[in-house]
Amino acid sequence: xxxSLRVIEWESNFLSGTLPLKEILNTSLVERLHVRDNxxxxxxxxxIGLMSDLRSCLLQENHWTGTIPTEIGxxxxxxxxxxxxxxxxxxxxxxxxxxxxxxxxxGTIPTEIGNMAQVTALTIVSTNITGPIPTQIGLLTNLRRxxxxxxxxxxxIPTEIGxxxxxxxxxxxxxxxxTGTIPTELGHLTSLDLASFRNSNVSGTMPHEICALSPRYxxxxxxxxxxxxxxxxNCNQDILSDSDDGGDGGGGGSSRSPPP
Length: 260
Prior knowledge:
Blueprint: E1 7-9, E2 16-17, H1 21-24, E3 32-34, E4 39-43, E5 56-58, E6 63-65, E7 80-84, H2 89-92, E8 121-125, E9 130-131, E10 145-149, E11 152-155, E12 169-171, E13 177-178, E14 194-196, E15 204-205, H3 208-211, E16 217-219, E17 227-228
Parallel strand pairs: 1-3, 2-4, 3-5, 4-6, 5-7, 7-8, 8-10, 9-11, 10-12, 11-13, 12-14, 14-16, 15-17
InterPro entries: LRR_dom_sf, RLP_Defense
Protein name: L domain-like protein
Organism: Cyclophora tenuis (Marine diatom)
């Protein structure tokens, strides 16, 4: 059944229920799974880990519950992974919110995420995920965009992020339990174009090593005095645009209209 299926694009279709991977596809062939902006609920199937050819997975703007399955560590060919309760508009501007009850993904970010060796874009937005940012993030050396936004991440920013020398975008907005100082190792991110720590509780001084990179956008904690940052840009400007995240980047906003 559907033995040659390689692309699933069900975006913005008001689909509901659970994601029926087992019943509808040969998971070993699918390269693109785009189901964002629907009404899917339940847990993200662990079966997703058997999709050995998967390259792009957009799951955001649904009603998932449970945890991120550890089986994502089996997705060694995936290049884009996005999950969250809202679209990129909330990454653009933290004043834009969604009902937290619509996105009940919880637990922690599994350490197995470090096995996703080909991933270039990783976004987790508007969840109830807690715990630290896993140090295994530093193994994702192809990563260009890391956006962990509006969750309950805690602890300090791991120094291992400084190993991601191709990283262009680092957004950690809205993690109020994220504390400690910004590691000087982030000064190794020579491709960095955007870094934002808005609405977090990081403290101290923005390291000179990061200021010296002169990224186009550098946004501190903005709404408290915990982080001194003389080189930061305007906290009130929209630092992203939907067009920046087009295609498999997963940042485009919803375009659907209500059903008749």
